[in-house]
TrEMBL record:
InterPro entries: Glyco_trans_2-like (IPR001173), Glycosyltransf_2 (IPR050834), Nucleotide-diphossugar_trans (IPR029044), SAM-dependent_MTases_sf (IPR029063). It comes from viral metagenome. PANTHER family: GLYCOSYLTRANSFERASE, GLYCOSYLTRANSFERASE 2-LIKE DOMAIN-CONTAINING PROTEIN. This is Glycosyltransferase 2-like domain-containing protein. Transmembrane segments: none annotated. Residues 114-294 form the Glycosyltransferase 2-like domain.
Length: 718
C-alpha cells in the first residue's frame, strides 16, 4: 500500500493500459484502482481516495459532466496515452499533485455544499430524500446524517442502503436525544461545505436548489441566508394548503406542475417585523446558510426541544442579509402521525410557541427596531395588519416593506394573464411568448375553480405556466396580487382583455311570455315543461283550455283551474302522454337545467310536436362561467328537487350548440330573444323531426365554456 490512492477510469477499449500498472507494480509510488464503471468514480468524494485519472480527448462527454465539479478539479487529472510510458514521470506527477493539493485552502478539497439531516426511524422515507438529493445539478455535495434512533437496527438500514455513495456521511449517537435542536447542532458541526442546508429525513429537494443557492451566494457576499418556496403534499400525492389568509395576510399560493401533477406552492413571504413575529410566517424549507455564519450565530440551540428553527431564524435575520429565490425548491410531506409523542409535542409547540417563545425572542432580539433600521417595519396595530387582511387586498396607499433581496435567476420577464378569457383571446400571441424559456407566466382567474384552470392549461400544453383562482375577486385585485406577491423581475406584462362571452340584448320583450306570444297564434295548443311559479305559463296568450303545464313541485294554485296540469316529472308526463298521443303546437322547455335532463325533454318534445309547431328553450345564454355550471355553487334541495340561490342557466347551451352544429339541416328556422330580464329564449321551427341519441351526450358534456361558447355565439349570429 502506497499513497496516494488513485482511481483510474478507462473504457474497455483502453484496457491495454492496465498492463502499464501491472508491469510496474513494484515501482509505482502510489496505489491504483482501475475501473471501467462511471459509478466507481464516486469514490473520489471519499477522503481515502486522493486523485482521479482519466484519458484526455478520448473520454466521453457524459463522464466529463459527471466529474466536472469534483473539488474544483484539484483531484482530477487528465492524461494522454503517452503519459503511461515512463513510471518515474508518472510517479512524480501524481505525488506532486497529491502533496500540493494538501497545502491548498481546505475548501478546494471539500464539498461546496453540505446537507444535514436528523433521522429517527426513517427507514424507506429517507430513500425518498436521497433520490431527490442525487438529482442535484450541482454534484459537489455531502450529506451528513445523524441517526437519533433508540437502537442499532435503523443505523444498519442506513449503512446498507446509503453507504455506496461516498458523499454521504452517517453517524450514530451513543444514546437517543429526542431534542431536535441538540441533534441538528451536532449535525451542523460535522458539515464541511461552504453552505449548509437543513433537510428533513422524509422530504424532497428540487434538482437546482444547490446550484441556485451557490450562484446567489457567490455573487452576493453580503447574503448569509437563502430561502425559497415549497409545497405540502400527503404521502399519496394529494395537495394540501393552509388557506389564502395564512401568515397574517402576507402568505399566498400559486399552482404549478410537480412530477406531472398540479400542486399548491406556498409563496413564502418577504422578511419584515410582521412576518418575523410568528413561526408560521418565517421561512420554511429550504433554509440555507453560509456555514461560517451559522456557526458564528451559535448554531441551533441544543436546549430547545421545539421551535429551535424559529430562534435561529430570528438570530439570522438581525445578523445578515437574507435573500429569497422565488421558485419552488422543496417538497414537505405531511406527517399524519397521531401517536402520543407527536400529540404531546404539537401541544407543546402550540402552548409555548405563541405564549412564550415568539413574544420573548421577538423582544429579546429587538426585531422591531432592527427591521425599522432596515426599512422593513410595518405598523402591527393597523387595521389591515391586526385583522390579517391579505396584503394585495389592502388599501391602495399600502406599501409592502421588506428587507430581503429577491433574486430571480430563471426568468428575465414575467407575464400575468388576467382571466381565462384573456388566455383564449390571446392564445396565439401567448404561444409565441411561451417559446421563450426565460419568460415566466402566471394565469390568474376570478371565475373558474382551480381544477378547471389546470385542465385548460393541460389542454394547451402549458406545463410550466403557473396559475391561481380567486372566485368573484375583482380583476384589478388580481393584478395587485401579481404585483404585490409574485412579481420579481424588472420587465413584466399584464395581458388583460374584456370578457369573450357578453352577448348583446336584441329585444324589448321584458317577459318570456311576450317573446312566445310574438311568434305563435292564441289558438295554438301549448305545453310548458317546468312551470314552477307560473309567470310565463299564466301570461302566454293561449286559450286556457289549450294549456298544459308540467311540474313536480309547482309554487302556485293548480287546482280548480280550466287549464290542464300534470304534477309530475317531465319523464313521467311524456311516458303517460304516449298513451293518448296528444300533439302540441308550441312547447316551452324550462325544466331541469342540466344537459342530461334537457336532452330527454327536447327529444320527447319533438315526438309530440305538430308538423308546423314551435319549440321554445329557456336560459340559452349564460353570462358567466359560474352560471353555466351543471350544478350551481349556491344550491339546495327542496322536496328532492335541485334549487339554486344565484343566477344559473345550467349547461343547456351545450345541447343547443350541439343542435346548431350538427342538426342545422333539420331546422326550418331559429331565432333567439335576449333581454336583461332573462337569459335568452330560443325559438326553433323544425323542418323534420329528429332525435339526438344518448351516445352523443358525452360529446355534449365535453363542450367547454371558454373554447366552445364563443363558437356557439357565432352560430347564433351574436
Amino acid at each position: 500500500m502506497k499513497y496516494p490512492f488513485i482511481i483510474f477510469y478507462r473504457e474497455d477499449k483502453d484496457s491495454a493500459l492496465d498492463q502499464f500498472f501491472f508491469e510496474n507494480n513494484a515501482l509505482l509510488n502510489c496505489t491504483v484502482h482501475i475501473t471501467n464503471k462511471i459509478s466507481k468514480m464516486n469514490r473520489i468524494y471519499s477522503a481515502n481516495y486522493h486523485l482521479l485519472i482519466t484519458l484526455h480527448n478520448e473520454i466521453a462527454h457524459e463522464i466529463d459532466v459527471d466529474i466536472k465539479e469534483i473539488s474544483d478539479n484539484k483531484k482530477y487529472i487528465k492524461l494522454t496515452k503517452s503519459d503511461f510510458s515512463d513510471v518515474k514521470i508518472f510517479n512524480d506527477l501524481v505525488n506532486n499533485r497529491f502533496i500540493l493539493n494538501c497545502s491548498l485552502d481546505r475548501s478546494y478539497l471539500r464539498p461546496v455544499f453540505s446537507l444535514f439531516t436528523s433521522s429517527f426511524n426513517s427507514y424507506e422515507k429517507i430513500i425518498r430524500a436521497y433520490n431527490s438529493i442525487k438529482k442535484q445539478t450541482l454534484e459537489n455535495w455531502e450529506w451528513v446524517i445523524i441517526d437519533d434512533s433508540p437502537d442499532d437496527k435503523h443505523f444498519l438500514f442506513l449503512k446498507k442502503n446509503l453507504s455506496h455513495d461516498c458523499r454521504i456521511r452517517m453517524y450514530k449517537r451513543s444514546e437517543n436525544s429526542g431534542s431536535i435542536g441538540n441533534v441538528k447542532n451536532e449535525a451542523v458541526s460535522l458539515c464541511r461545505g461552504n453552505y449548509v442546508l437543513e433537510m428533513d429525513h422524509d422530504d424532497e429537494i428540487l434538482p437546482t436548489v444547490l446550484e441556485d443557492a451557490t450562484n446567489v451566494f457567490s455573487k452576493n457576499e453580503e447574503i448569509g441566508f437563502i430561502y425559497m418556496d415549497f409545497i405540502n403534499i400527503y404521502e399519496n400525492g394529494d395537495n394540501f394548503k393552509y388557506g389564502d389568509h395564512i401568515c397574517k395576510g402576507y402568505g399566498s399560493y400559486y399552482c404549478q406542475k410537480y412530477n406531472g401533477k398540479w400542486a399548491y406552492v406556498y409563496n413564502t413571504p418577504n422578511i419584515n417585523n410582521i412576518t418575523l413575529s410568528h413561526l408560521v410566517c418565517c421561512p420554511n424549507h429550504p433554509r440555507i446558510w453560509r456555514r461560517d455564519l451559522l456557526l458564528k450565530l451559535g448554531n441551533y440551540c441544543e436546549n430547545l426541544p421545539i421551535c429551535d428553527d424559529y430562534e435561529i431564524l430570528l438570530r439570522t435575520a438581525i445578523n445578515c442579509k437574507m435573500a429569497k429565490i422565488p421558485k419552488l425548491g422543496y417538497v414537505q410531506y405531511m406527517n399524519n402521525s397521531n401517536n402520543n409523542f407527536s400529540l404531546i409535542r404539537n401541544g407543546e409547540i402550540n402552548r409555548i410557541g405563541p405564549q412564550y417563545i415568539s413574544p420573548i425572542y421577538y423582544k429579546e432580539y429587538n426585531i422591531a427596531e432592527k427591521m425599522a433600521e432596515l426599512g422593513a417595519y410595518e405598523d402591527p396595530f393597523a387595521n389591515d395588519t391586526r385583522n390579517n387582511v391579505q396584503i394585495w387586498t389592502r388599501d391602495k396607499t399600502y406599501v409592502h416593506k421588506y428587507c430581503n433581496l429577491l433574486v430571480n435567476m430563471d426568468f428575465k420577464r414575467q407575464i400575468c394573464i388576467v382571466g381565462l378569457d384573456s388566455l383564449i383571446l390571446n392564445l396565439e400571441y401567448i404561444k409565441v411568448l411561451y417559446n421563450d424559456d426565460e419568460t415566466d407566466f402566471i394565469l390568474l382567474d376570478n371565475k373558474c375553480p382551480i381544477e378547471y384552470l389546470w385542465k385548460q392549461l393541460d389542454s394547451y400544453g402549458f406545463d410550466r405556466m403557473k396559475c391561481y383562482s380567486f372566485i368573484d375577486v375583482d380583476s384589478d385585485l388580481l393584478v395587485r396580487y401579481f404585483k404585490t406577491t409574485y412579481l420579481t423581475t424588472k420587465e413584466y406584462e399584464i395581458v388583460k382583455t374584456g370578457y369573450i362571452n357578453r352577448p348583446k340584448y336584441n329585444t324589448q320583450f321584458t317577459n318570456r311570455s311576450h317573446a312566445i306570444n310574438s311568434v305563435t297564434h292564441p289558438d295554438a295548443k301549448y305545453l310548458e315543461i317546468g312551470v314552477e311559479y307560473g309567470q310565463t305559463f299564466l301570461q302566454t296568450h293561449f286559450k286556457t283550455e289549450n294549456k298544459m303545464g308540467v311540474d313536480p313541485d309547482p309554487k302556485f294554485d293548480v287546482l280548480n283551474k280550466e287549464f290542464q296540469f300534470s304534477k309530475s316529472t317531465s319523464d313521467d308526463f311524456f311516458k303517460d302522454n304516449t298513451l293518448n298521443e296528444t300533439k302540441y303546437d308550441a312547447i316551452f322547455i324550462d325544466g331541469m337545467h342540466q344537459s342530461e335532463y334537457f336532452l330527454r325533454d327536447f327529444s320527447n318534445s319533438v315526438k309530440v310536436l305538430e308538423k308546423d309547431g314551435s319549440i321554445f328553450i329557456d336560459d340559452i345564454l349564460p353570462l358567466t362561467y359560474n352560471e353555466q355550471l351543471k350544478i350551481p355553487r349556491k344550491h339546495y334541495y327542496e322536496n328532492g328537487i335541485l334549487k339554486y340561490g344565484e343566477e344559473w342557466t345550467g349547461d343547456i347551451w351545450k345541447v343547443v350548440y350541439h343542435i346548431l352544429k350538427n342538426y342545422l339541416n333539420n331546422l326550418e328556422e331559429y331565432k333567439y330573444f335576449y333581454n336583461p330580464c332573462y337569459r335568452g329564449v330560443l325559438h326553433l321551427k323544425l323542418k323534420s323531426a329528429f332525435e339526438i341519441p344518448d351516445s352523443e351526450l358525452e360529446t355534449i358534456n365535453n363542450y367547454d365554456y371558454f373554447t366552445d361558447f364563443p363558437l356557439y355565439l357565432g352560430l347564433l349570429n351574436l
